[in-house]
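Question:
Write out your own:
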Amino acid sequence: MRAIFHWNLGSRTIELGRRTLVMGVVNVTPDSFSDGGLYLDAEKAVTHAQQLLDEGATLIDVGGESTRPGAGVAATGEPQVAARAGTKEPNPSVSEEEERKRVLPVIRDLKRRRPDAIISIDTYKAAVARAAFEAGAEIVNDVSGFRWDPKMAKTLAELKIGAILMHTRGHPEEWRSLPPIGDPVLVVKRDLRQWAESAALAGVKRDHLALDPGFGFGKRFEENYPLLARFSELQHMGYPLVAGTSRKSFIGRALARDGKDAPIEQRLYGTLAAEVTLILKGAHIIRTHDVQSAAEAARLADAVVASGG
C-alpha cells in the first residue's frame, strides 16, 4: 500500500499517493544525454513544457546543466574542469550566471502562460535555486542531495520551498572509476536517512522534503536492478518517493542485442516497464522524458495499487 503525503511547496500543498504524479523533463542544455540541444532555445523549451503538461505532466522539471556521466560540477558555481571520460578533452561545468541565463526565461515564461503549472528547478547551486524560486519555481530538485553546495540546505529552509533530495555517489567525472557499492539498497537508505537528518538540522521541514534514490547516479549498471526490485523498502523512511529511470543506461544494457546496448531512442518500452515497477512498489512521482506514455501506464498501475496491489 502506498503511503499518502501532503507535500508542502510553500505556496501550496499537493497530495501524493492516491495517484502517481508525472514530472516532465525539460533540459535547457546543449549536452544532456537524452535530449541535449533540442530545447536550448527558451521559446522551444517553453513550448515543449506546455506540450508535456497537455500530455499529462503535473510537474515540470527545468534543468540548465547536464549531470550525465563525465560532466564536471562546481559547488560554488565557478567553472570546474574535468576530463571527459576516456579523453583529455576539458569538460567544464556550467557557471551560475550561465545556468540562470538558460533556465530563468523558461520558468518565467512558462509561469506566465500556465500560472497553475508546478515548476521544479533541477540544480545543485543555491544561488540558482533562489533565483528560480523568485522566477516562479516551487520545487528544487538537487541531484547532489544538498551536498555539492554547502549553502543549499540553508537556502531551502529560508525559501520554505518543496525539495527533492537525491542520492548520488561521488561526482559525475568519478562515476566510471567508483568501487562497487555493495548492497545498493542498504547504502541508499543509510545515506538518504543521514542527508535528510542533516537537512532537518539546517531547518528544512520534513513535510517539504521528498527523496529520490538516484538511479544511475554513481551506480554501476547491475547496481540499479536491486534498487528497482527492492524499491518498496524505501517507503520505510517515511518520505514521499521520487524516481527517474527514463532512458537511462542500465535500461539500455538490459535491452542489449548482439552485445550492443540499446540506443537512447529505443529505450521507451524498457523505461515504461521500470516506471510501472516503481509505481507498484510505492513511487509517488515519476520523472520522465516520455510523459504521455508514462501517464497512461501510471493510470493502469494506479488502478492496481488502488485494488490492493
Observations:
- The radius of gyration is 18 Å.
- The chain has one domain: 5-306.
- The first strand starts at residue 5 and ends at 8.
- Confidence is low (pLDDT under 50) at residues 76-91.
